[in-house]
Amino acid sequence: MSQIPKAYSPQAAEDRWYETWSAEGFFAARDASDRPAFSIVIPPPNVTGSLHMGHALNATLQDVLVRWKRMAGFNALWLPGTDHAGIATQNVVEKQLAGEGTDRHRLGRADFIKRVWKWKEASGGQIIRQLKRLGASCDWPRERFTMDEGLSRAVREVFVRLFEEGLVYRGSYIVNWCPRCHTALSDLEVEHEERKGKLYFVRYPAADGGPGVEVATTRPETMLGDTAVAVHPDDDRYKGKVGLVLALPLTGRKITVIADPAVSPEFGTGAVKVTPAHDPADFEIGRRHNLPEITVIGDDGRMTAEAGEAFAGLDRVECREKVAAALSAEGLLAAAQDHLHAVGHCYRCKTVVEPLVKDQWFVKVAPLAGPAIEAVESGRIRIVPRNWEKTYFEWMRNIRDWCISRQIWWGHRIPAWYCGDCHGERIRLMGRWGDGGTGKTSTTYTQLRTNGLSHEKIVGDMGTLIVDRDVPAVVSREDNPACPSCGGRNLLQDPDVLDTWFSSALWPFSTLGWPDKTPALETFYPTSTLVTGFDILFFWVARMIMMGLKFMGDVPFRDVYIHALVRDAEGRKMSKSKGNVIDPLDIVDKYGADAFRFTLAAMAAQGRDIKLSEERIEGYRNFANKIWNASRFVLMNVPPDLSTRNLTRETLRAGTLADRWIVSRLNAVAAEVNQALTEVRFNEASAALYHFIWHEYCDWYIELAKISLFGEDASAKRQTQTVLVMVLETTLRLLHPFMPFITEEIRQALPPLCRTQSPRGETIMLAPFPAPDGSLIDLQAEAEMSKVMGAIGALRTLRSEMSVPPSLEVTAVFSARDENVAALLGEHGGEIARLARCRPEIGVGLPRPSKSAVQILPEMEVYLPLEGVVRIEDEIARLGKEAEKVDKEVFGLAKKFENPDFVSKAPPEVVENGRARLAELAEKRQKIGESIARLSEIGREPS
RNA sequence: GGGCGGAUAGCUCAGCCGGGAGAGCGCUGCCCUUACAAGGCAGAGGUCACAGGUUCGAUCCCUGUUCCGCCUACCA
Questions:
Q1: d(CA A352, CA A756)
Q2: Which residue is nearest to nucleotide B35 (CA to C1')?
Q3: Fewer C-beta neighbours within 10 Å, C or N terminus of chain A?
């Protein structure tokens, strides 16, 4: 007899089992193995971050897959790790410094980076600990970090090779600049948001004082940097104006009207002011027409000296007002109307980004995109759900070059150097010299050397440097390369670091040891499945595919499973800045990891977002408790020396109806779960398990088992015990990937000879995942059971509707349609008696007792004698309602048959089905009518 | 502007290849029946957003409309 407690309490079990699994090395995959490989690399979370709902969902789904495959006999690897999250992490540490009244420039680059590493060491373990609390079965000794030595080597190798092939280049282009983070951003890192603004109509007079051109703009402050006005070449309104010289208001600069097809005649006035230095579209036009690029907005988002005395130093937004006012004062502001337009914001700090012309490093993406498109088109990579493929293609086909340099310090330093000896005049540095350490003024390298500073001193104290764009870069796999032209060693490394996503793009192979040829790489690449959210489909997935194909010559993964985003009540992404986050760990504390995991899996329907509700989690907590108590019951009713070892197909097929039924259902569910997991339909797998455990095993099988468990027949009892435990044990294994802790906890309490053995260790984790045995699917048993269940249900309904107390044992009449049904019911009279709490009278065409309530089933009629327990009128009313229901269905069905086409064109089995149903309904309706008539008669007699 | 998705029970959502509408929670009634009140048994509740079309038959396929969400975009 077991002593386990009445309610399941997750905490203790979770800690204990995770500890054990980990210590025993059950999570470990083998670099070399006879078994087929299954591998997943985790989408690396931000190292200094903490677990949010998205991570929890992501990790749960991966763990379900890995645990499933591991049990199914695969050499399963789930490789964990974290990401250095350049801008985000740097921002955190900079905020700390600000709190201490200092900044990174005073600290200097080297000390700043030390400081970030310190922060990483201090806080970096958090998210990993949190993943463990969810039960994540990662191979922890293989944990990697994007800034690891090995991964850094991979990053450098890739950069150098791409540079050598001309796929990485340095150039001066317009980029998205965050004036707060002080760095360039890739197009993807800019979030567009609709903002209410104004569309200003401004008159630009001709230089000769004649009629000029009116332009429309949302950003009047940029006019200070205008170097042309453009119109569409085919726009008749402006045919005569092309070539006209205008006097740019407020500055007096002479600018020309040019024609360019990029201008859309429909918008505004059809004439657009061109500011090549501050607008991406204008930049393109400017380059096409060789226009000057006048920078009027600086790195800090304030107007530069070029903007003119009246505006220099003003913030962009302030300046907008001032310019509008100034134009208005000169009578040049024709109109200002409300206008809705998309404004780019920094994805990190939400500051409005400023397009600026900057020297940056880029990846030429088009040559890499081609094969990446082909890989998905050909099906070598399968994206699930399929509809994401379209989004993927759309983006890949319109892809633009990727700006990979970031003007921050935390990240992979770009392996490019500039020779101070050859080009010292054209390299300007900012650092902790000469200006009190603010790092705000710059000096040329040559000047610093002349002033007596050593090269080492300069490098050590360097904050950043500005290199003329024609100074050649020396790109090298090794640090401190020699200058290829002068052979000197006085080279200065490019101050920029790489976009974090550059290193993430290599994740599926860099984590397995690349560029070395390791056994792990051999075994686990390509990985099997990538599980991720659609929000990083472009950021990460697409880039991994490009890099994997380029450097491994093969796709990085076979399947990409795109899961939903966990959103808040209003359907918005949860984010710290919005303050709408629910901490997954709070949920784990409150309801247990198993309940939480099961909830996430159950809600992970393909293609739909998850709006998480706590009630739902509570429901699955109750489910865990249900399993717990069912197991308690089983353990209380089986001897500790029980064995299921001798249970063969033959003994199972020779079992009782209930045994054959539950075994059949178990195998059907095993088939469903396997199938659903194969198709990554987590919700279907969990729903099948939920229904089977609660509504078949608990509601019916356990109740039926009680008869022989509490009965006299020792051999029947032993047989029931065996099946009871076998089904439970198998179910636990099916459930384990979803609810790892409770399943292990219960399995360990089962009689030792009832546990399916695992190849190594005493754990459910490595025990075989149940494969369905088709020969045990017994449709006849299922059909028979459903008749018995129907009989029991019918009587229960009658009792309930007639308000017959459950404790009152009644006599009930089961009048079968034919001998077969009567025999079946007769055989299971004991079951009917117990589960419906009655003395059953069973036979064919039994007479109906007077004053009885009736349920009419296809196979039988069930009578409950009322004997003054219930008022006859109640039963008449109830039957009246039922008759209405039947009439409604008959009406619908009859309409179908009125249509001759239905009979001739519909498949025969559908027609036959309909006919049978109609006949059934007609008979039922007639019997109800008879019952009502009889009861009405009786009702008139004195009772 | 382009693309994608959603609208099904009071709430949150399933519903794979068109053929008798489901779950969880909530609600109603009865019940502490020796696994479980985090429970048992029974029940109420839906013109499957709207309008057309295809079909013998549409929640499901097609077209359009309305509302909502998301992604993407150089109409300033």
A1: 61
A2: A633
A3: N
